[in-house]
Amino acid sequence: MEVVKNYTDSELLEALRSGRGMNPVLKFLYRQNFEVLKVYVIQNSGSEQDAEDIFQEVLVSFIELVRLEKFRGDSSVKTFLYALTRNTWLNELKRKGRADVREMKFEKAKDTIDEDAAQKIAGRESRKQVMDVVEKLGEQCKKILLAYYYEDRSMKEIVDIAGYDSEQVVRNKKYKCLKQLEQMLTADPNMAKTLKKALNYE
What we know:
By secondary structure, the chain is an all-alpha fold. It has 2 domains: 1-114, Orthogonal Bundle (Rna Polymerase Sigma Factor, Chain: A); 120-202, Orthogonal Bundle (Arc Repressor Mutant, subunit A), CATH 1.10.10. Helix content is 71%, strand content 0%. It has helices spanning 9-18, 22-43, 48-67, 77-105, 124-135, 139-150, 155-162, 167-187, 189-198. Helix 3 (48-67) packs across helix 4 (77-105) and helix 7 (155-162) crosses helix 8 (167-187). The longest helix has 29 residues, at 77-105. Mean pLDDT is 78; it is low at 106-123.
């Protein structure tokens, strides 16, 4: 039987910053947090597949925050991951709600939809900064990420746009694109700063 190593929060942060021994770290984070976070997602109109997708995104975001020194341990890792999951899932529910409304009412629906961070990109310069970063990920990642985060497209819509066989294939590709983006931003803090300003994150 495989033995999963236990980590204190300080050990976790050190491992994530260094990038060494990531497999046991990720297994520990999954074992310690996924079931609780899955229950939250399922209790709030989600499925187990939704929970897995959200947890993957949350882990990528958390690793980026740690490496960019945005998370300094003011709360426990468990508490922070729960809050991050909650915010990410609520945004996803809003996005899904917007997609449903758009399908029924087409363009008129846009007047009644609450805008999120992706929709607040204003001005040609900000859009250019976002596009410059996304271009570096390649054509397929560009199609998926822009369709999902910027155009609020559903997974079903993206299957047709990007020419994939199923929604699961798109989810897997989106995760790989986010991972590639995370690695790119970790390697270039100036790029990360530029992107976040363009998205009004700061």
